[in-house]
Amino acid sequence: MDMNAEQYGNYVQSMSPPSPLGWDLLRAFFVGGAICALGQGLMQLYQTWGASEADAAAWCSVTLIALSALATGLGWYDDLARFAGAGSLVPITGFSNAVASPALEFKTEGWVTGMAVKIFTIAGPVLVFGTAASVIYGGILCLTR
User: Fold this and answer.
1) CA 5/CA 100 separation, integer angstroms
2) Cβ count within 10 A of residue 120
3) Average pLDDT of the residues of the chain
């Protein structure tokens, strides 16, 4: 079957189901907003319990990471991502899911060669480049002050 690029594009367009863009945007907005509201609620709760703002922020981050990893392990995060799309990629929960998912996929290979190695598939480059960027930015800040 010989098709040029335009004919192929038309064929793909005719076979693809229409995307409910408005509904997708609303779900992403409300789920992402709910995750952020949960984070803000945790911050307020920890401050009510006597934590400073910096400590409350740290505990909020730890709690959101733990909840996201737990939801990933139980298979709930995948369902949430299918429903909310990009709304579930709020940075800290999305990163936790991205780190936990590869480890779970390879758990049958064992603790060291499976989970321990694959957990750094996503986290490794982020940690390396994050550390390198912080050193560079810190050096620039020291030189410009």
Assistant:
1) 40
2) 15
3) 85
The per-residue pLDDT for range 122-136, each reduced to its tens digit, is 666 766 777 788 889
Q: What is the C-alpha to C-alpha distance for residues 45 and 50, in angstroms, rounded to an integer?
A: 9
CA distance 79 to 19: 19
Q: How far apart are CA 145 and CA 124, in angstroms?
A: 32
Q: Is-contact 82 23, C-beta < 8 A?
A: no
Residue 6: both structure tokens together: 């335009």
pLDDT in tens, 26-53: 999 999 999 999 999 999 999 999 999 9
Q: What share of the chain is helix, strand, coil (3-state, %, to 5)?
A: 85, 0, 15
- Cα–Cα distance, 34 to 118 (Å, whole number): 30
Q: Which helix (H) or strand (E) holds 130?
A: helix 120-144
**Distance (Å, whole) CA 89 – CA 70:** 16
